[in-house]
Amino acid sequence: MPDGPQAPDIFVKFYVDAVRSGMVRDMGAEKLQTLLVLASFMDADGRCYPSQYKIAELLGVARETANRRVNALLKYRWHGEPIVTAVKTRDPTIQTWANTVYTILPASGVRMGSG
């Protein structure tokens, strides 16, 4: 399951306070759209690892554009706190980058749910 949860009964919760607090206005449409695409792959702990190509496909943009958008989201801070972090992992058997694990943090106002 390289791109994250795919079950039809999985959903993403987006808290009203994220809108009413001004965060959505502050982050802008592109960062919000990118956050929601990443969130569609996250697990209950907020971790996900979609490929740049999958992110680009779902955003409807080129891979390079998706990469710029993800980087802008990673640099974004709400009240001085990141809402998404990323850690690149290496494949120890071939010494190359394996993938990037993103973590969507509670400050984002996004949670995973099911049922």
Question: Could you list the spans in which at least 5 consecutive residues all have pLDDT below 50?
Answer: none
Number of strands: 7
* Average pLDDT over all residues: 88
CATH class: Mainly Alpha
> How big is the Rg?
14 Å
The helix tally amounts to 4
Brief account:
The protein has four helices and seven strands, in the order E-H-H-E-H-H-E-E-E-E-E.
Can you tell me about this structure?
- The chain is of the alpha+beta class.
- Helices cover 37% and strands 29% of the residues.
- It contains four helices and seven strands, in the order βααβααβββββ.
- A hairpin with a 2-residue loop joins strand 3 and strand 4 (81-82).
- The longest helix has 17 residues, at 23-39.
- It is globular.
- The protein starts with 9 loop residues before the first strand and ends with a strand.
Keywords:
Arc Repressor Mutant, subunit A; three-stranded antiparallel sheet
Architecture blueprint of SSEs:
Layout: E1 10-14, H1 16-20, H2 23-39, E2 47-48, H3 52-59, H4 63-75, E3 77-78, E4 81-82, E5 84-91, E6 96-104, E7 110-114
Antiparallel strand pairs: 1-7, 2-6, 3-4, 5-6
Helix pairs in contact: 2-4, 3-4
